[in-house]
Amino acid sequence: MSSNEIKELIITALNEGFQIHPDLVKVLEDQPELIPKVIEAIKKKKECEPNNFTITLKDIESFGLNLEIDKTNLLISDERSLADGVQVSTYEELNIMLNDRFKRMKDLWLQRPTKTSLFGLNFIKTKGKEEMWSFALIVQKISNENYEILADDGKGVFRLKISNKRIYDEMIPGSCVAMKINPADFSVTDFEDIEFPEVKRKKIKGKIALISDLMIGSNKVEAFFNSLKATKPDGVFLLGNAVDSLAYIKNGVSPMEGYRKVSELLSELPKRIIKVIIPGHADSTGKALPQKPVSYKVAKDLYSAQNVRLLSNPSYITINGSNFLLYNAYYAFKSSGMPEQYIVKKLLKIRHLAPALGSVPIVPSVSDRLVIEDVPEYFFLGGGKEKVDLIYRGVWSIGVPRFKECGCYAFINLDKENTEWIQVH
To answer: Which residue from 234, 316, 327, 339 has the fewest beta carbons nearer than 10 Å?
Structure first.
């Protein structure tokens, strides 16, 4: 609401002998179209309660005027970046991260309620007399014709045959699995991903708009923001690549202009809406995972904007007591060659966001920060080409295709647990 509108409302109230409560003024700042109803309330209060001189939100309700206050249902209580930690740079130090991955993955496996005895690969190879289970990191697929892999059980790297194509295709290099091995020919006859127990997802109220790859700078996005004014979400999550930094650089303009544009567009939405932004490969954060939040240096307008959170990719956020995992999975989708619905489910099953070494750029660190130790209730992904909407073991996963290509976004009703795909161009 403009300062002139505020002034006119205050003058109207004072002329009638009343003042406007500050909480009501805050509501009207987001919804100036409600001013006539407040003026009507002033007149009614003068008739009914002439000795009470303050107009409040309660007055509007008591006079049956149905103010329809536009307030959020979502409250962020915690956020956790996955881009923190000690980074390393050399090939030797990369092994530190892989050793950490193996150890933590094995710990997760051992936490499973059903216990399975595990044996070292060398023990099975030299002394095994029947099929036995071992836990290992899949280092590499070395033969697509003979279905052979290299696996590291923490004590050495071994070459194993895979008994059939299905098992071979489902194994992802860089992931950690339990393998059932026949010592007679040292072949894998079965395997199990780490998995997790059924998640009991809490019911929460609220509506969230999920959008990926707005690519401001090389794409028209006004239709999306106009749509938000009609759908009135409680939260807007930009799941990577809000700005096409390279497009600005090619035109001799700083990407700062792109983030300034994002800030302007978000500022046109009601202040009550929570706005969450994670980076992607086109943002000014570097391409390797995990990506730090877009820096204050290039996005200072966003850092000073009301109700805007700039987080890492990936990152956790807690809303109304429920755990959300946000991830721009561009590289995971691009390198897999598999349907994106399968990939989303597979990432949860293997408990890792970017297991494949080489095809996904990763910033090595002493601790592997892409392990999914805390299984979320909600898993929201951007960066893909396909619409994904699935529930796996209680985890509700939504994969949003790139806006520049699909022209759509996902509108999530958390209370009713449904997803509407809204086309805007």
So the answer is: 339
Q: Are 332 and 347 spatial neighbours (Cβ–Cβ below 8 Å)?
A: yes
Pairing of strands 274-278, 207-211: unpaired
Report whether 383 contacts 239 (CB < 8 A): yes
Cα 245 to Cα 258: distance, rounded to the nearest angstrom: 7
- Phi then psi for residue 8, to 5 deg, are -65, -40
Instruction: Read off the amino acid at residue 173.
Output: P
pLDDT in tens, 316-373: 999 999 999 999 999 999 988 899 999 999 999 999 999 987 778 888 788 899 999 9
Which residues does 12 contact at the CB level (< 8 Å), separation at least 6? 39, 42
pTM assigned to the model: 0.83
Which are the contacts of 250, defined by CB distance < 8 A and separation ≥ 6? none
Report the C-alpha gap between 21 and 187 in whole angstroms.
75
Query: Is-contact 240 313, C-beta < 8 A?
Result: yes
Number of Cβ within a 10 Å radius of residue 418: 10
